[in-house]
Amino acid sequence: MQKRIHELAGIEFNLNSPKQLAEVLFERLQLTGGKKTKSGYSTDAETLENLMNEHEIIGLILEYRTLAKLKGTYLDGLIPLIDPKKDRLHSTFHQAVTATGRLSSSDPNLQNIPTRNEEGRLIRKAFYPTVSDWRLVSADYSQIELRILAHLSQDAHFIDAYKQKQDIHRRTASEVFDVPFEEVSSSLRDKAKAVNFGIVYGISDYGLATQLRIGRKEAQGYIDRFFEEFPAIREYQTKIIAEAKESGFVTTLFQRRRYLPELSSKNYNLRSFGERAALNTPIQGSAADLIKIAMIQLQQEIEKRNLKGRILLQVHDELVCETPREEEELFKVLMKETMEQAIQLSVPIVVEVYSGDNWYELQK
DNA sequence: GCGATCAGCGCG
DNA sequence: GATCGTGCTGATCGC
Which residues belong to any copy of the DNA-directed DNA polymerase family A palm domain (predicted)? Predict the structure, then answer.
């Protein structure tokens, strides 16, 4: 693949160097340069995708990047970290690193093992239980951040949607685009999903426009419609920012604080960043509080019942355990119940459970 | 030679 | 200028 790319470029160069790649694409091949970095033209995936029709080299570069990432980080990168005595890989979880209260994981990071693309997802086959014939059981919170937003804002429509077990993205699409719930197309649902996620992060019209590849005016229209239909969310967000500016910090459901000195900056960008963090932290941080409480309770249940199975990993909204086959069904029930009942919100908390022989095969 | 930084990209 | 929170790799910078 590398050879073919060099042939198409008409020159040999280091394909891993964004600087050299930019020179080849934007000077030698005269492709249309777009976004800039500190030092020159960007060659990131988004930029390259916009050049797909300009040159056949682009698709190959994107494919090379995907494979180089997988090989470098997840094959060559993980193998030396396997403890040869135990044939086992151990990560370190950090409890006091992030600003929101999440855990982080390093050496290696096991919270970013691929899942979004099939090629990468195959890496998960390498993660399987310590004992042959044991099973992996995983449980993840369904849309926990949007449920926490419903709880914090007390928005009647959001709470109603979750109480009725409605598909929230479809509900948002129905409200924002003013179409009957049953008639929402998948493309409208995708747009609404981007709006819902954007709201959690404090998105701008520009950010949403970029994400959806639409105009800024149109994006602003969606945001306006969202807040018209879910007025309590706007009121909640306005109040959070005002309180944060007054006190200097925001809090999570269990009173974890994040100080945000950026909120009083004279620099617009820094101040805006502070405002977005003020909106996101109570949500992301409360979800972190929740799963930590659930982890403590689950561990207590495991010890109380003298179970052989054990917790292996936490991935922000997901727990992964390994269990003897005889404990598989019990773990599924315990994990679901413990995680769903760890705290009470104004909306139901829903946990999906899966099991399988390895981290790739997990099924309901 | 080595640590820091940059660009890019993996995850929730 | 432009959506939050992370960690790792390879290239490059700078001492």
Answer: 120-327
Strand B reaches within 7 A of the A316 CB: yes
* Distance in angstroms: CA A60, C1' B7: 19
**A260: which nucleotide lies closest, measuring CA to C1'?**
C4
Nearest DNA or RNA nucleotide to A92 (CA to C1'):
C7
Bridge partners for A360 per DSSP: none
Per-residue model confidence as pLDDT tens digits over A278-332: 999 999 999 999 999 999 999 999 999 999 999 999 999 999 999 999 999 999 9
Q: In this structure, what token pair is assigned to residue A312?
A: 């292996």
Distance CA(A55)–CA(A63), nearest Å, equals 14
User: Shortest CA distance to A109 belongs to which of A125, A97, A122?
Assistant: A97
Q: Strand C positions with any atom < 7 Å from protein CB?
A: 1-12
Whether residue A346 contacts residue A150, with contact meaning beta carbons closer than 8 Å, is answered with yes
Q: Which nucleotide is nearest to A70 (CA to C1')?
A: B10
By CB atoms closer than 10 A (0-12, 13-18, 19+), residue A170 is buried
The full set of domains in chain A, from first to last, is 1-75 (1.20.1060.10), 86-144+289-356 (3.30.70.370), 163-282 (1.10.150.20)
User: Which residues 6+ apart lie within 8 Å of A85 measured at CB?
Assistant: none
> What does the block give as tokens for A71?
């090989």
| Strand B: positions under 7 A of a protein C-beta atom | 6-12
pTM over 0.85: yes
Structure tokens at A281: 């932290």
